[in-house]
């Protein structure tokens, strides 16, 4: 089932104890697509992403299935999923503050390095092309970067693993409007490199602008889905998510 899609969930459900944070949901990401999951605080967006990435906390339990390139990911660790081509940039950007920018990036290619690929320099130059700011600051301690630069570093580190699917949890969170614009511009450029993106966002307007397809998640369930450009013109979406902001 679902063997065609890059990513497909089949009745993926997540519970924290008895609380169902994500009801059984089906989502798909095709190769090279940008798919967004929008919705309010607490809707279950991070929960869905973490379930897909294999990054749920111990208190979370999961039912249903996640398929990546047709392969059932049940029982496969987060590290293995990274090696298979999925990278997650979590909401808390989790950088190594006392390490240099460049060393944070190199950690992102660690799994590939272990798998025998010793030449990370090519991918490093790809990342530096996308983020000239990181190149300028390659020897700076990650902890001294600005919020926007930290988000770039988190994105760059995930890209060092050469993912087929990049999963971004609220990349615009806490950033100034100008930086948000820059981050979304980079997301669009990333698509041109062929990587598929699953983008969780509260910034519905910006997310619908870059995405091909969108899901609206409300209290743990998909309330609406469709072509992103069409959803941006849907009166319900406009009233609820695009209103005044
Ligand atoms: P936000 O944008 O605020 O991060 P979200 O849509 O990503 O929201 P989740 O973080 O996935 O939502 O949370 C969904 C629900 O699950 C919320 O009610 C939240 O309180 C609950 N929840 C999240 N993580 C846990 C956890 N580790 N243990 C128990 N409940 C949790």
Features:
11 helices; 245 residues; binds adenosine-5'-triphosphate; alpha/beta; 38% helix; five-stranded antiparallel β-sheet; 11 strands; single chain; six-stranded mixed β-sheet
Explain the layout of strands and helices.
Elements: E1 7-16, E2 19-25, E3 28-29, E4 34-38, H1 45-53, E5 60-68, E6 71-72, H2 78-84, E7 86-89, H3 101-108, H4 110-114, H5 121-130, H6 132-136, H7 147-159, E8 165-169, H8 177-192, E9 196-201, H9 204-210, E10 213-218, E11 221-227, H10 228-231, H11 235-242
Parallel strand pairs: 4-9, 4-10, 7-8, 8-9
Antiparallel strand pairs: 1-2, 1-3, 1-5, 5-6, 10-11
Helix content estimate: 25-40%
Small molecules in complex: adenosine-5'-triphosphate
Helix-and-strand structural type: alpha/beta
Mean pLDDT: 91
Provide the spatial order of strands within the biggest beta sheet.
7-8-9-4-10-11
What are the segments in which pLDDT stays under 50 over at least 5 consecutive residues? none
In what range is the share of β-strand residues? Answer: 25-35%
Count of distinct strands: 11
Report the span from N to C terminus.
40 Å
- Reading the helices and strands in chain order gives EEEEHEEHEHHHHHEHEHEEHH
Describe the 3D structure:
38% of the residues lie in helices and 26% in strands. It is an alpha/beta fold and 245 residues long. It has eleven helices and eleven strands. Adenosine-5'-triphosphate (ATP) is lined by residues 16, 19, 21, 39, 41-47, 57, 59, 202. GO terms for molecular function: ATP binding. This is ABC transporter ATP-binding protein. Keywords: Amino-acid transport, ATP-binding, Cell membrane, Membrane, Nucleotide-binding, Transport. InterPro entries: AAA+_ATPase, ABC_transporter-like_ATP-bd, ABC_transporter-like_CS, BCAA_Transport_ATP-bd_LivF, P-loop_NTPase.
């Amino acid at each position: 089932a679902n063997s065609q899609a890059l990513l497909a969930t089949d009745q993926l459900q997540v519970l924290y104890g008895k609380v169902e944070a994500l009801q059984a949901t089906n989502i798909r990401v095709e190769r090279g697509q940008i798919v967004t999951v929008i919705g309010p605080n607490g809707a279950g967006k991070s929960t869905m992403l973490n379930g897909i990435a294999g990054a749920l906390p111990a208190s979370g339990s999961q039912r249903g299935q996640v398929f990546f390139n047709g392969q059932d990911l049940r029982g496969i660790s987060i590290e293995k999923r990274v090696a298979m081509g999925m990278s997650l940039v979590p909401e808390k950007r989790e950088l190594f503050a006392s390490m240099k920018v460049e060393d944070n990036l190199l950690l992102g290619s660690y799994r590939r390095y272990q798998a025998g690929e010793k030449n990370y320099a090519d991918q490093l130059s790809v990342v530096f092309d996308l983020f000239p700011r990181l190149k300028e600051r390659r020897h700076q301690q990650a902890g001294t970067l600005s919020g926007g630069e930290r988000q770039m570093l988190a994105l760059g580190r995930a890209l060092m693993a050469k993912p087929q699917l990049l999963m971004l949890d609220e990349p615009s969170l806490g950033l100034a409007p100008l930086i948000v614009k820059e981050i979304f511009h980079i997301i669009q450029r990333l698509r041109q490199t062929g990587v598929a993106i699953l983008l969780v966002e509260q910034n519905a307007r910006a997310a619908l602008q870059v995405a091909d397809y969108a899901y609206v998640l409300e209290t743990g369930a998909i309330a609406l889905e469709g072509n992103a450009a069409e959803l941006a013109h849907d009166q319900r979406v406009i009233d609820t998510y695009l209103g005044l902001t």
